[in-house]
Amino acid sequence: MAFPRLHTPPTLTDTVAKQLLAEIDAGRVQPGEKLPTETRLAEQFGVSRTVIREAVSRLRQDGIVEARQGSGVFVTGQGGNRALRIDAAELDSLDAVLHIVDLRRALETEIAAQAAAHRGKRDMAAIDQALAAITTAVDNGGDGVTEDVAFHRSIARATGNPYFLATLAFVSQYLEAATRVTRGNEARHADQMRAVLREHEAIVDAIRRQDAEAAREAARIHMVNAAKRLRQAHR
User: Fold this and answer.
1) How many angstroms separate the Cα of 123 from the Cα of each of 5, 105, 130, 135, 212?
2) What is the pLDDT averaged over residues 170-188?
């Protein structure tokens, strides 16, 4: 099966903003230093001033540069406060998507452990309901991807830490297309569907028993196997 292109190619604005940021991160443009004028940057990049203006505006929104009236645009030195962003345009290869899976594995394992340690009765009921919804969706001919996302979010919610939930939502958005590919492959292989169900059940069982280490390990196994299934779907 050919792996689908997950995102549209980067725009000129994306490319210019990324290269400007790379120059700043590499220290070739220091904090407090003024950027070249729009005209000069347009000449250097071979693009219009409109593209430069949009790229600089993006950096300004992230607090990386600031405009000083009558003086120009300067690097702020506050790059560490920038908003977290993953360049979706780069996620058009299997290797790139697997990097996101690795990131999600690190997150999901701790989420499962924290959910086991802190979940309440209502949390457990919500997790059970979310797990059942996946099976129902698949039995009704769906791929269960939306329900799968809801299942993992129910576990994140059970941690009691809203930042786990927010971070998981941020990372997971970049994997939805890839997940649909693996689900399509799993649908043709009943043994894989059963394996996914068993992995989910192992996570839920550990959370129910409030065994944090078992939950962490079950989540790790699930994400490792998810990466394997993604590779198989790519063949």
Assistant:
1) 37, 22, 11, 19, 15
2) 67
Boundaries of every domain in the chain: 12-75, 91-234
133-163 confidence digits (pLDDT tens): 998 988 887 777 889 889 999 999 999 999 9
Neighbour count for residue 117 (Cβ, 10 Å): 15
State in words which class domain 12-75 has: mainly alpha
How many CB atoms neighbour CB 6 within 10 A? 19
Name the more confident of 187 and 166.
Answer: 166
Cα–Cα distance for residue pair 14/26, rounded to 1 Å: 18
The CATH architecture of the domain made up of 91-234 is Up-down Bundle (1.20)
